[in-house]
What we know:
The structure holds two protein chains of two kinds. By secondary structure, chain A is mainly alpha-helical. Chain A is built from 14 helices and no strands. Helices cover 71% and strands 1% of the residues of chain B. At the A-B interface, α1, α2, α4, α5 and α6 of A face α2, α3, α7, α8 and α9 of B.
Amino acid sequence: MTDTKTVPGRRKIKKTAADQIFDIILYAIAAIITVIVLYPMYFIVIASFSDPALVSNGEIILLPRGVNFKAYAQLAGYAKLWVGYKNTIFYVIVGTIVTLIVNIPAAYSLSRKDLYGKKPLTIFYLIPMFFTGGLIPTYLLVTSLNLDDTFRVMVIPFSVVTYYIIVARTFFSNSIPEDLWEAAQMDGCGYLGFFFRMVLPVSKAIIAVIALWAAVGQWNSYFNALIYLRSPELQPLQIILRNILISNQTISAMTTGAAAVEAKQMADLIKYAVIVVSSAPIMCMYPFVQKYFNQGVMLGSLKG
Amino acid sequence: MRGSQATAKPGRRSFWQEINRCKALYLLMLPSLVLFLIFTYVPMYGVIIAFKDFTPSEGIMGSAWAGLKYFRQYFNSYQFWPTIKNTIVISLYTVAVTFPLPVVLALMCHQMKAKRFKKFFQVSTYLPHFISTVVMCGMIILFLSPSSGVIAKILSLVGIKLPNLMGMPKAFPSIYVWTEAWQHVGWDSILYIATLSAVDPTLYEAATIDGASKWHRMIHIDIPALAPTAIIMFILRMGNIMSVGFEKVYLLQNTLNNSSSEIISTYVYKMGLISNQYSLSSAIGLFNNLINLTLLLLVNWLSKKMSDTSLI
Lengths: 304, 312
C-alpha cells in the first residue's frame, strides 16, 4: 500500500470520516488482491533457483535459499525444449504474417459500402461463428489433404478469423473517410492502389492489434499441435511444456525410494524453471505492447 | 439488381458490370474466401457422418446411412448426463464468478487516487493473462500438490492439512473457476475501466457538493454508468454457456476427478480421436453445436428486445 492520504495537489476535497474508512478498506483489499496475484508468479521465480530439497520441505516461502542454477543448467542441455522454442517462434512469425495477409484485405473489402454482394458475403463470414463442422469432420478433411504432421497445418488452415475481420472492418469503416476514396478515384486510383497506398499506411494501429492477437494465440496454442502433429521435430513449445509439466506428473508419483525422492524434487525444480523460461519472454514484451492490447480491447468492444 | 433494370434506370448496372467494377475488392477477399470455404464449409458438409456408419475406407459418400443411431447411442450412454451436467456446472459457475469480478475490480480501480499504486495494481492484475494455458495448468498442479505444493506448506504453518484437491471430483469446478478468475479478471476489467473513465467528471463534483460520500458516488454514478456495457457482456456470455474451453479442462483432468471434469468437448475428443468412433463423436459434437446455436439465437433475440444491440 502506498498512501491513503488525500488527493495530491489537484483539487481540495474535504475528507469525511466515511470517505476515509472507504479509502482504507479500498486500498487494503487492493493490496490483498495484488499479493494474491503476484505471489504465485514470485514464488515460481524464487523456487526455480533455490535448493530443491528446501523447496520441497516448504522452507522457501518468501526468499530464495541455497541459490543454484542446476535446473536451468539441465534445461539448457534439454534439446527438445529448444527445438520447441524454435518451432514456436517460426509458427508465431509465419502464422502472424498469414493471418494478416488473409484477414486485413478481406476486412477492407467488407468495409466498402459499394461492395457488390456485401450482405451475402458478410453472412458467409459470419456463419462459422454460429455453426461449425466440429472436430472430427475438420480432422478428416485436414488428414485427407495430407496436411497433418506438416508445419503448414499450424499456420494456414485456421488463419481466417471472423472476429479479426469484424474488428478490422469496423476500424476501416470508422476511420477511412469516403472523401479520401473519391479524391483518389479522381486521380485514377483503383481499389487495389487505394488499399495499398492509402489505407494500409494509416491503419498501423489495427494491424498491430491483430498481429498481437494472432501472435499471442499462436504462442499459446497447443490443441492443433496435439491433434495434427506427430513428429517430434515439429512440436511447438506448448507441447513440450505439457510433457514436462503435466504428463510427468503421473510418472513421478509412482516412483519410490530415497533416490526417487531426490529425483522428484529435482523434477519439480525443473518445472519451476521451465515455467520461467517459457513465460518470461512474453511477460517482458508486455509493457512495450500494452498500449496496443488495450486498444484492441476497445476496438473489439465496438459493434460492427 | 436485375439486368432488365440496367437499361431502364441509367444509374444501375448489370450483374456482370457490378462484378467487374468490384473485381479488385473480390481479389482482396479471395485468400480468406478460399480458406474459409475449404477448412470451415467443407467440414460443415462432413458433419453428415454423424448420420452415417462412417469408416475411413469407404469415405463420407460411401458409408451407409445410420439415421439417428449415434445420437441415440449418446443419449442412452452412461456419459450423457454427466457430460452435460459438468459442462453446465463449470460454465455457469465460471460466469457467476468471472462476470461480476471484473466489474468490481474496475470500480475499485476507478476509486483509487494514488496514481502510482493504481498503475501498479492494474499492471499486476493484467499480468497473469499472458500465462499460457499449459503453463497455467502446470502451475495449478504444482501449487495444489498436497506433498510438495507451496499452498500445502503455507497452510501447514497454521496447522491445516491440504487434501489432494486435484483428486477430488467436488473440488474440480472450483479449481477451474477460481484459477480462471485469478488469470483473467484483471484483463477483463480493462473494458469497464475505459467505460468509467468516460464518465463526465462534473457528475462527481456535483455529487460531492451535495454531500455524497465516495461510497454513494460509486453506487449512484459508477454502477449505472457500467450497467449497459455489463448487460451486453453478460448476454454474450450466456450465449456461450454450452461451450467450455477444451484445453484447460483436458489438461487438468485425471482419473480421480474425471466424474466431474468430463465435459462435452473432452468427451468428443476422446470418443473421436482416441477411440476412433468418428460418427459417434461427430453426433455428440453436432448435438452440442445445435444447443449452442439455439442459445445464441435466443440470447440474440433477447438482447435485441432489451437493449437494441445484437450480433446478427
